[in-house]
Amino acid sequence: MDGPILQIRDLTKTYKGGMQALAGVNLDIRRGEIFALLGPNGAGKTTLIGAVCGLLRPTGGTIEAFGQDVQRHWRSVRRRIGLVPQELSFDMFARVDHSVTYSRGMFGCAPDPARIEQVLRSLSLWDKRKAKIRELSGGMKRRVMIAKALSHDPELLFLDEPTAGVDVELRRDMWRQIDALRENGTTIILTTHYIEEAQEMADRVGVINKGKLLLVDDKATIMAKLGSTEARIELAQPLADLPPALTPYQVSLERGGRTLVYRGGDGSGKGKREAAAVIKALVDHGIAFEAIETRESSLEDIFVDLVERGEVTA
Length: 314
Prior knowledge:
Distance between the termini: 26 Å
Order of helices and strands: EEEHEEHEHHHEHEHEEHEEEHEH
Helix content: 25-40%
Number of domains: 2
CATH superfamily of the largest domain: P-loop containing nucleotide triphosphate hydrolases
Structural class: alpha/beta
């Protein structure tokens, strides 16, 4: 099937009392991609996932998944979707293997012990298969949640803060599993507070705040359009004023004229070139400096800036 696997148009959700959780969201998800949805707490991430998965009814707008209207064809659509929610929810006295097998049956899938074993092994749960869920650590319980979501082989998988509260080793294991799922053709939408994970794993990134999508684009494009370079140059002697040769560049003096700061560029390399030109101008004009520190803006810098400005650029 060509076209997006998920198509959201003008989606709104207003709760009783007037709180608007979604304010006209438009979003297409491409088949086979990893899409990271970033936003602060209360931005609308979980509400958006809940609307797609049929856990809540939108106030307005449409959602199509696999070419079908989600509200009219909820059962057939939901069968093809997996969800790992933020909150852990289990029968704590159930065995791990029984819980995952039961989830598969809930979606009308025939029993397949070999597939259940494959899922459990992929998440390092096979040795714990006979343990009761209440006996597991928090990180292992989260693995079981992922196993349950994968048990019916979904084509579209939602991961709502999948690595929240887990240790670094477990987080890496989960991301290896997510990468393997993508290799097998599963489309993945995740929300996360770990922006470095989105920067590492996602193909595209969306930033949501106060129910509005501020930005949706390929990760590399975002970095190119909104990234920047900062160079901090510690001068040997303080300057009272900027030399005329530096006026074409975005520079300023800090710390009483002892530090010259350049901030500019767009992530395309322009910032690095201009920072080099600033340094050359200092050398040409005999202005001595003792140290240089440069850094490129990260996805986190861009995210924080967008949320603070609240500008819709999607």
